Fold this protein.
Amino acid sequence: MSGTATRPREPIDDPEIIRAEHLDVGYAGKVVWRDATFEVRRGEFVAVIGPNGAGKTTLFRLLLGLQRPMGGALTVFGATPRRGNRRIGYVPQRHTIDNETHVAADALVRLGVSGTKWGPGFSFRSEKEAAAEALEAVGATELGSKSLGALSGGELQRVFLAEALVGDPEMLLLDEPLSNLDLRRSRDLVEVIHGLVQSRHVTTLLVAHDINPLIQCLDKVIYIANGNVATGPPEAVLTSDSLTELYGVPVEVLHDSRNNIVIVGGEDIHGGESG
Amino acid sequence: MTGGVVPFSWNIVTDLRTMWEFNFMRNAFEAGTIIAIVAGIIGYFVVLRRSAFATHALGHVGFSGAAGAVLFGVNPVYGLLLFTTSGATGMGLLGRRASNRDLEIGTVLAFMLGLGLLFLSLYTGYATEAYSILFGEILGISNGGVIFTLEASVVVLVVMALIYRRLLFASLDEDVAEAKGMPMLALGVTFMILLAVAISIAVQVIGVLLIFALMVTPAAVAVRLTKRPLYAAVVSVLVALTATWVGLFVQFYAQYPASFFIVSIAFAIYVAVRVGQALSAWLVHRNVPVAEPHSSADRESA
């Protein structure tokens, strides 16, 4: 597996975007995970992996300033995370949109830039253009005039990505964008996201269940399981030894001939689909 | 169609001129117009936020308020406002997911209706009071009532214009809006209070039981006709205006309750749009060989 992740530049040259030191995280006195120390540098593409309920979304809530750590220190862009940071684009896992939502996709994308403003804002050319640009950047220009309720899961994820992108953020937090997609559409979307990471140098954290569609383009993995966090380049984290230590039970990482991995022995089994 | 005191002529202009010689008809048209505009716009957000049942419930909460006001000899609209805004604040504070809890809302709704019944039975006056709260009495709106309706509506519309984009964002993409620093609770409570005021004034026209026809049906038509939020709000207003104006016009000659005509016209527009769209979809499918919709396949994997 080593050598699959190509890094054209030395990550050390890039400024630090996220710094976590001995971070403890939880709700109402109950610790979800503890003692995480890692940093994310500008332009890195990072996967946040782990079983259900391990606290992956909690990490995002911390970075967005929606929740405070229980212990340790966390800085984003060199400061304590705060709600409403315009430098962050966010795609949550949960959405209020369903197939009865009769609203044009580009109206939602526009809200990414105008949704926090006062007043009715009848028609601002700059907003329309920003929305059109963002849709183009994710290869979804033709979806702009379609109703959100009529879009497929993969199309919706592109629109959400455009909505997150429209304010020209420096960091993207994408929570399970691949969860409802089949493997082919997962790979398509990952290609779009990876393209953005490379062309815009936008630091991207992506929560995923299955690492296989991502593994070729990752710079770093944040693996959360059993209350522990392991971080590092994928080839260092996704090994039998490292995951056995993380889970605290014997775990084996298997590779197939196409570099897909299967993790056996954790709380549940990740991967498994072949490419 | 000539059951009324004034005969109907096919000259609509003359008809309207005759109609507007009556003060109660002028008041009805003025109040009805203002209320249709407010109801159409607020209704769009009711549909977007799936708050139709909460709207229905607030109407019933308002019923006990109005009945209580009648009992104490106060103008029913003040009782309506007091009860609906209190109920709306409560629902808003519980949060959006909580305000979509049908069982809790239904339980409170039934209790409030019962309370209203008690107030009315304690009141020894006429049963027409109850009747007009339940089904509306647009022809009974006084000059002062029109002024009050206008004042309340201006407040609702100004606040609505101010929070329009933030509310749209919070309604369409709750978690992103929250992360972007939007005050979700304050926005939710504000919207519910605007809804409460809109319901309170709309009850004069249509009554608590028929509130859907003005607050929900026009917007339900609008979202089927346009995907643009601002256009949808405009279409919603136009449908509410059409139902109100035509309803008032027809009842002047037909002498049946205005509420009945308003509700029927709103319903007829809704049915026409749904049938029209089903027909056009059928025609398109019949003429074009159906392509494999990859969207549905994609959704199934969800």
Q: What stands out?
A: Chain B touches chain A through 37 residues (CB under 8 Å).
